[in-house]
Design goal:
Ubiquitin-like (UB roll), Rossmann fold, three-stranded mixed sheet, elongated, alpha/beta
């Protein structure tokens, strides 16, 4: 007997080559993660790139960002309303406000505190400066002001100088700071400590001192109120001046008709009389002859 249905080829249950490769890939965690995450991200990235390719869309995004940023920065808690200055006298405080022309109120995000600090620190009268924004919208400027220790005479006028030899500010007349010593001459700022020490050891002569002059960047001359001049040596100037002060206290040396006391040679001090004393001496010598 023949079968009612013809024989059909039996189907092979094994997967095809490509099906087998796909199943193997699906068993790989990295490939599954790529399909679940990478492909969606790629699609979204493509859509965003296509949307932002238009200039109008990009400008809309920038405007929205700028508007949001401005709204945050202009909030009241970020606004600076005034400036407070500590450690400065009235004149220096005025100079600080001049070099920091800030228009209040202003957002703290618009302040470059480091640049402002460097600007304040560059002022001659400022040794150190700090800036910070205090709670309450206050820009706090703290300075360490240089303290003048002497008046320095230069060809174009008078200047105040601190202990480091830094020129602080100009003054109009010597009478503006009569409490400070007067120094002048080439190299006087480099030897400022020694010049100030001459004032310290002057004792009763200090009231008569008009100033000290640096000569040839190597030694000092002391000028007194009546034009008398004390010439000091290159080395040991303070000790030589102390000898002159002692001689004046004991023998009233500088109360006599002396124009110059030359102490440049320690073992041979020299006195030069003034013109009136010289004339009297000549007249006396002539009468004796």
């Amino acid at each position: 007997m023949r079968p009612l249905k013809p024989d059909t080829p039996r189907r092979d249950p094994a997967p095809s080559r490509w099906g087998y490769r796909y199943q193997r890939l699906m068993l790989t965690p990295g490939f599954r993660r790529l399909l679940k995450v990478g492909v969606p991200l790629l699609i979204v990235g493509g859509l965003v790139a296509g949307w932002t390719a238009r200039e109008a869309n990009r400008q809309m995004l920038l405007d929205a960002y700028a508007d949001m940023k401005s709204q945050i920065q202009q909030r009241d808690e970020f606004m600076v309303k005034l400036m407070a200055i500590d450690g400065a006298d009235e004149r220096l405080a005025k100079d600080i406000r001049t070099v920091l022309p800030v228009e209040f109120p202003i957002s703290s995000f618009d302040l470059d505190l480091e640049e402002m600090r460097q600007t304040v620190a560059a002022l001659p009268a400022v040794a150190e400066a700090t800036l910070r924004v205090r709670p309450g919208g206050i820009l706090q400027v703290g300075v360490t002001q240089r303290q003048p220790v002497a008046v320095y005479r230069v060809p174009d006028g008078l200047k105040l100088v601190d202990a480091d030899g830094v020129l602080i500010q100009n003054i109009i007349a010597r009478a503006d700071r009569p409490d400070l010593p007067l120094i002048t001459g080439d190299g006087a700022r480099d030897a400022l400590a020694e010049g100030l020490e001459l004032y310290e050891v002057a004792g009763p002569l200090r009231a008569r001192m008009r100033g000290v002059v640096r000569m040839g960047e190597r030694r000092w001359d002391v000028i007194l109120d009546n034009g008398q001049r004390i010439l000091l040596p290159t080395t040991g100037a303070v000790a030589a001046f102390e000898r002159v002060v002692a001689l004046d206290e004991v023998q009233e040396l500088l109360q006599r008709d002396v124009a110059t006391v030359d102490m440049r040679h320690a073992h041979r001090p020299t006195l030069r009389l003034n013109e009136r004393a010289m004339a009297t001496l000549r007249q006396t010598s002539a009468e004796q002859e």
